[in-house]
Amino acid sequence: MLLEHKVVLITGAASGIGEATARLCIEEGAAVWLADLNEEKGVVLARALGDKAAFTQCDVTDEQQVASLVDEVVERYHRLDCAVNNAGISGSPDAIENISLENWQQVMNVNLTSVFLCLKHELKQMQRQGSGAIVNISSESGLIGEPNMAGYCATKHGVLGLSKTAALENVKNGIRVNAVLPGSVRTPMLDQFLDLGPDVEKMILESVPCGRFGQPEEIAQNVVWLCSDRASYVSGSAMSVDYANVCR
């Protein structure tokens, strides 16, 4: 098993890519600590995953809550082997000139500041133990621009920059940091747009070269590999998982 005896912390774990990653981590032998703002879904998932899963409700934009989350994991397991920083939102789509400062700051806080805070406290623990692997979930939007998605694109570019910087800073600390850049994946975030009507789904699918949406499990496979020792020489990478979408 790829993650046997590993302790993995996953944020945004109650649904979508986070949930799929949690399920696969359990299958691959890990003990998994789930964190999410949605307490109801998080508790249900942790119970479904069994004794090797635990859940903490956490607002990852709050530094004290993030610090306490990492401390809670370490108090129980005495280490943190892997972390998957996955929490994120799309924000309200609109042209730059129409975006409110409130909306902009919310997207920045959830998508970028949260990754900074998680990295800060995860790295401190991993530096103490001299090892670790972190995967930050960016997006194909971290490589390109998308009309009406300025906040989302800006934050996902930022996650990529944070990941590369953290990787370089921790080369001598035994810690690997990578980013995964999913394409159009069938998650609750995407469903918010698809619910607007069949024309929206048709429009999005027409922009995807392979003609279908990715599944959360397809992203999770890559996340788990990057967390595993099989990726021992991989750090600072930006792994696109979008079926050639950014190659257009």
Question: How would you describe this structure to a colleague?
Answer:
This protein has 248 residues and is of the alpha/beta class. It has one domain: NAD(P)-binding Rossmann-like Domain (Rossmann fold, 3-Layer(aba) Sandwich). 46% of the residues lie in helices and 15% in strands. The protein is built from eight helices and seven strands; from the N terminus they run βαβαβαβαβαβαααβ. It has helices at 16-27, 39-49, 63-77, 101-129, 150-169, 188-194, 198-206, 216-227; strands at 7-11, 31-36, 53-57, 82-85, 132-137, 175-182, 238-241. It has a seven-stranded parallel β-sheet with strand order 3-2-1-4-5-6-7, with helices on both faces. α1 links the parallel β1 (7-11) and β2 (31-36). α1 packs across α8 (216-227). The longest helix has 29 residues, at 101-129. The radius of gyration is 17 Å and the shape is globular.
Uncertain ranges: none
Main β-sheet, in a few words?
Answer: 7 strands, parallel
By DSSP (H or I, 4+ residues per run), the number of helices equals 8
Distance between the termini: 36 Å
CA-atom Rg in angstroms: 17 Å
Task: Describe the oligomeric state of these chains in a short phrase.
Answer: single chain
The CATH topology turns out to be: Rossmann fold
The helix/strand series, from N terminus to C terminus, equals EHEHEHEHEHEHHHE
The CATH class label is: Alpha Beta
Task: Tell me roughly what share of residues is in helical segments.
Answer: 40-55%
Structural class: alpha/beta
Q: Look at the structure and give the mean pLDDT.
A: 94
The portion of residues forming beta strands comes to 15-25%
Any idea how many domains? 1
Looking at this structure, what is the CATH superfamily?
NAD(P)-binding Rossmann-like Domain
Q: Provide the CATH architecture.
A: 3-Layer(aba) Sandwich
What strand line-up does the widest sheet have?
3-2-1-4-5-6-7
Tell me the number of strands. Answer: 7
From the spread of the alpha carbons, the general shape counts as globular
